[in-house]
Design goal:
The complex is a heterodimer of chains A (259) and B (212). Chain A is of the alpha/beta class and 259 residues long. Chain A has a single domain, classed as TIM Barrel, CATH 3.20.20. In chain A, helix 2 links the parallel strand 5 and strand 6. Chain B is an alpha/beta fold and 212 residues long. Chain B has one domain: Rossmann fold, CATH 3.40.50.880. Chain B has 6 helices and 14 strands. An 8-stranded mixed beta sheet of chain B has the order 2-1-3-4-14-13-12-9, with helices on both faces. In chain B, strands 6-5-7-11 form a 4-stranded mixed beta sheet. Chain B is globular, with a radius of gyration of 16 Å. Classes of the chains: A alpha/beta (259), B alpha/beta (212). Chains A and B meet through helix 2 of A and helix 1, strand 8, strand 10 and helix 6 of B.
């Protein structure tokens, strides 16, 4: 059977990690390529790079980073942030990423999902979703609304309806981020994750809120997620990927233990 | 030299990068002549069987592959490449190369895991491969190793002698096939970490003889 995937997320700006990452040895690494290599050796199942480079002109720096990462690690990785066109996707995929993740650009232009899937296959297109809890209404019956601009702008789109629409348009996977849980380290939004993961027939990566190993366990069991995105829990040396996987393995969750 | 067959089916650079990491030179080519000159051949692919066969035939790579197989050159099929070596595929009702007898099938609807939860198609992620017998291409690979899969179709070899590896996803399916100098894997060794690199490295040293 498939293993549940553990996916570290790295934020990159102008070719550098936005936060130097501290490990148990107190090493501070700012280079995304070294970091990717470290997580690859540590047993990460996949990596996500989120490019927050502000200026469009500096995008070539990210492409160069992707190329260097692809020469060094041999597991799938995706790149998100600032991908607005099929040509943007092509550059990132040709540089060696397995998948691209589109978020606000897919909301502005849903056709981008279909165009990307037609050009590169659904497996290459990840629909990134930033979601905030709201009072259920006629417009937002699930009580979860799609937001953009880091949660500042509400779109009027129901998250459940959007997830289904994304699947219909050809997304191969959903990366589901709860803006409410993000950064709290108090656990994933389990109800949201379960709602989406059981409503679509494509894998769902849960994102936002992991602060303890138990949170990752819960998002696989209660949340029914296929993969868990992690950041600070490993970035700051609280746990290693091996510790996380050993814990899950002992609890009877299938994870990849040999690498 | 290793020829990586280019028939416009997906990203081939990842295979080439993995070979470069292993210190192996390779050439991405759509020339039938180059394929026949190569010492060994990697036949990758992502996409649909119908389009793939169309492009292979247009480039005369179908006959080149059959010839190379007949001449005993080591050939490694990857993902869609593994499906194309069969007789035919359910996907777009495509007639394929026929190097291995049998048909390519789609995962049935409503497959579920032992706990009862419905399984998603495509089968995407890390899964184990039960290797049925010793083979040089799997030399030194831990039996607990997992490999990265992305596919909705899988090969169904008619003769169990062609079945080298099996994977469980709701149903057991053939994830590795072999026939003399051909090995074909349904997963992506170039994306499967160290065990995948080991497999590629083994393939680069394989003489194409199956000692079974």
């Amino acid at each position: 059977m498939l293993s549940k995937r553990i996916i570290p997320c790295l934020d990159v700006r102008d070719g550098k990690l936005t936060k130097g990452i501290k490990f148990k040895g107190n090493v501070d690494i700012g280079d995304p390529v070294q970091m990717a290599a470290f997580y690859y050796d540590e047993g990460a199942d996949e990596l996500v790079f989120y490019d927050i480079t502000a200026s469009y002109e500096r995008r070539d720096i990210m492409i160069e980073t992707v190329r260097k990462v692809a020469e060094r690690i041999f597991i799938p990785f995706s790149v998100g942030g600032g991908i607005r066109t099929v040509e943007d996707m092509r550059l990132v995929l040709l540089a060696g990423a397995e998948k691209v993740s589109i978020n606000s650009s897919a909301i502005r232009d849903p056709g981008l999902i279909a165009k990307g899937a037609a050009a590169f296959g659904s497996q290459a297109i990840v629909l990134g979703m930033d979601v905030k809890k709201v009072s259920p209404s006629q417009k937002i019956p699930s009580g979860y609304e799609m937001v953009i601009d880091g949660g500042r702008t509400f779109t009027g789109l129901d998250a459940l309806a959007w997830a289904k629409e994304g699947e219909r348009l050809g997304a191969g996977e959903i990366c589901l981020n709860s803006i409410d849980a993000d950064g709290t380290q108090k656990g994933y939004e389990l109800h949201l994750t379960e709602l989406i993961a059981t409503s679509v027939n494509i894998p769902v990566i849960a994102s936002g809120g992991a602060g303890a190993i138990e949170h990752i366990h819960d998002v696989f069991t209660e949340g029914k997620a296929d993969a868990a995105l992690i950041a600070s829990i490993t970035h700051y040396g609280t746990h290693t990927i091996k510790e996380i996987k050993s814990f899950l393995h002992e609890k009877g969750i299938k994870v990849r233990m040999t690498w | 030299m290793i020829a990586i067959i280019d028939y416009k089916a997906g990203n081939l650079t990842s295979v080439q990068r993995a070979l470069a990491f292993l210190g192996r030179d390779s050439a991405i080519t759509s020339s039938a002549a180059e394929v026949l000159e190569a010492e060994r051949i990697i036949f990758p692919g992502v996409g649909a069987a119908g389009t793939a066969m169309f492009d292979l035939m247009r480039l005369k790579l179908d006959t080149a592959l059959v010839d190379a197989y007949g001449r005993g050159k080591p050939i490694l099929g990857i993902c869609l490449g593994t499906q194309i070596v069969m007789d035919r595929s359910e996907e777009n009702q495509t007639r394929c190369l026929g190097l291995i007898k049998g048909e390519v099938l789609r995962f049935p609807e409503n497959i579920s895991e032992p706990g009862g939860r419905k399984l998603k198609v495509p089968h995407m992620g890390w899964n184990r491969v039960k290797v049925m017998r010793k083979h040089p291409v799997f030399d030194g690979i831990d039996p607990q190793s997992e490999f990265y899969f992305v596919h909705s179709y899988f090969p169904g070899p008619r003769d169990t002698r062609n079945l080298l590896g099996e994977t469980l996803y709701g149903i057991p399916f053939a994830s590795v096939l072999t026939s003399s100098n051909l090995v074909a894997v349904q997963f992506h060794p170039e994306k499967s970490g160290r065990p995948g690199l080991r497999l590629l490295s083994n393939f680069c040293m394989w003489d194409g003889k199956d000692h079974a």
